[in-house]
Amino acid sequence: MPHAKPALLSSFNQRLDLVQPSAIRAFDNEVSAIPNILKLTLGEPDFNVPEHIKQAAVKSITDNDSHYAASNGTLAVREAAAGFLADRYGLTYDAASEIIVTVGATEGIYTVVTSLLNPGDKVLLPTPIFPLYIPVTLVGGGEPVFIDTSANDFVLSPDMLRAAIAAHGDKIKAIVLNFPSNPTGVTYNEAEVQALAEVLRETDIVVISDEIYSELTYDASHVSMAKYLPEQTILLNGVSKSHAMTGYRIGLLAGPAELVAKLGLIHQFTITTPTNSAMAAAAEALGTAAGKADTLAMKSEYQARRDFVYQTMTALGFEVPKPAGAFYIFAKIPADFTQDDVAFARDLAEKNQVAFVPGSAFGPGGEGYVRLSYAASMATLQEAMSRLTAYILAGRDD
């Protein structure tokens, strides 16, 4: 087994010293060693990919669709994506010049942030937030600016946004809006989206609108930021969450052609092109009536699971903003237990073999919370809530 020459250890990009491994993955790995552990840690849908989507991938393989596709993705999947965005959200994008097919939404995040940032640029991050944005910003030479939304029920208000803009001035290059939110499940209604757009329209800030959970909204239809601010918005979406296709690794970037042309440079030199069979499956998912029906069936199941977990946890004394989308519960630890979320989550895992992610993994405002994913079967969730109930009751008896 070779060992690196010691002098080479100082050869890396110095910004990597600012980056820590994913706290979500680190905690998941830690608790995985506990016997009989029941993990609700990762945002991984438990559904199988619908059969007609799998068959589209198989057909791509058997048809020998094995050569390089266009860097921005096959025209078929880009046309399907354009139709999907128009049908669901009333957005108009040209398939040829305004959409890029990425290797998951995560490559889309990397592509956008890397393309935009120069050293010293600032990125506004309303927190708690999906933590990937933080290291990507740091490695890109940028500075994350956190806006803690916990005092406002995890909703970024126009006043909070104006204050952050006033405090950091023209060094702000971009803002990330992730809704429905990972980790809170909070989303924005039409009036709230429009109000934020009015503030941002007066600036030159690029809006990175991460709407990967847009198909999983429960109480109202999703409203995209691109509806009100298309000239400044780079939209992220994909099929991972909507169609349980996390392993297929297909995401979408959409925006004005002039911006997308720039993004295409980093995308092209990073991954060359996505996988053909996965793109064929995504075209089926996004471009057919059957694909739309698939999402509706999954969403109905998620909503029932949400209601069960929400009711159970609130009855146990957790404060929970009722999720309007995605498939997460972000719960405030009851006041009669430690507010050290890492210690609480670790103790729960060790004593009762059920694992949630500590809320501090998601940035300022997440301290004292835990996140669990209800993208699991009802039987699994019932067992998890039974174990959680036993832990809480035992803790109160001590």
Q: Averaging pLDDT over every residue, what do you get? A: 96
Strand order within the widest sheet? 2-8-7-6-5-3-4
CATH topological fold name of the largest domain:
Aspartate Aminotransferase, domain 2
Report the principal-axis shape: globular
- Helical content stands at 40-55%
Number of helices: 13
The radius of gyration is 21 Å
- What is the level-2 CATH architecture name of the largest domain? 3-Layer(aba) Sandwich
Oligomer: single chain
EC number: 2.6.1.-
Cofactor: pyridoxal 5'-phosphate
Pfam family, one: Aminotran_1_2
Enzyme class: transferase
Q: What does this protein look like?
A:
The structure is a single chain. With 398 residues, the protein is α/β, with parallel strands linked by helices. Helix content is 43%, strand content 14%. Strand 6, helix 8 and strand 7 form a beta-alpha-beta unit. The protein contains 13 helices and 12 strands. The chain folds into 2 domains: 144 residues, Aspartate Aminotransferase, domain 1, CATH 3.90.1150.10; 240 residues, Aspartate Aminotransferase, domain 2. Pfam families: Aminotran_1_2. Keywords: Aminotransferase, Pyridoxal phosphate, Transferase. GO terms for molecular function: transaminase activity.
Strands, helices and their partners?
Blueprint: H1 23-32, E1 38-39, H2 51-62, H3 75-89, E2 99-102, H4 104-116, E3 122-127, H5 133-139, E4 143-148, H6 158-168, E5 172-178, H7 190-201, E6 206-210, H8 225-228, E7 233-238, E8 251-254, H9 257-271, H10 276-287, H11 289-315, E9 328-332, H12 341-352, E10 354-355, E11 357-358, E12 369-373, H13 378-397
Parallel strand pairs: 1-10, 3-4, 3-5, 5-6, 6-7
Antiparallel strand pairs: 2-8, 7-8, 9-12, 11-12
Helix pairs in contact: 2-10, 3-10, 4-9, 10-11, 11-13
